[in-house]
Amino acid sequence: MNLRPLQCLFLLASMLVLPLALLLFGQWPLREWVQAGSLRANDAAQILFAFYVAVGITAASRANTHLAAPSSRRADTPRAKVWRASLLLLCLGPWLLFMLWSAAPLIAASVIRLDRFGETLTPGYFLIKVALGVLLLLVLIDAVQAWRAARRES
Question: Where residue 42 falls among pLDDT bands split at 50, 70, 90?
């Protein structure tokens, strides 16, 4: 099985749903029976969910599983695909670069401080901000790769 790096990332991220579900399900018995640890389980679930969504958005775009209006047959020509991909990159590119530029200091400061969750003071809140950077980078990479693929097809 020959997987590209992004495909490996998508596969690994898809497996995050299992521990995420266990952590979310485990909160109830931890809260009711053990009477400890439910907030920490919630903190860990938030981290997993952040990375799951950050990678999942790009994976869903690549698999064409997002909700979208159907395209007409005429719009499926190679030239139309190039136009669509170019417009997508033109719209998303500057916004993503701005978001990366403005989020980078926030993410860096959070990682340097090793931000903690507010209620429990458990470490790891900074990972949610790192997931924001991962999300932005993956969407930018996907838009550039879609544009390159459309240009190669035409």
Answer: very high
Per-residue pLDDT tens digits for 80-129: 888 988 998 999 999 999 999 999 999 999 999 999 998 899 989 999 99
Has residue 58 got a pLDDT over 70? yes
**Which H or E run contains 98?**
helix 78-113
Cα–Cα distance measured from residue 48 to residue 23, given in angstroms and rounded to the nearest whole number = 10
Query: Which sign, positive or negative, has the C-alpha torsion 136, 141, 147, 150?
Result: negative
> Which one, of 65, 62, 85, lies nearest residue 9 by Cα?
62
Q: What is the pLDDT of residue 50?
A: 97
How far apart CA 53 and CA 131 sit, in angstroms, is 9
How far apart CA 110 and CA 148 sit, in angstroms, is 34
Residue 67 has pLDDT above 80, yes or no: no
What count of residues does the chain have?
Answer: 154
CB 132 within 8 A of CB 95: no
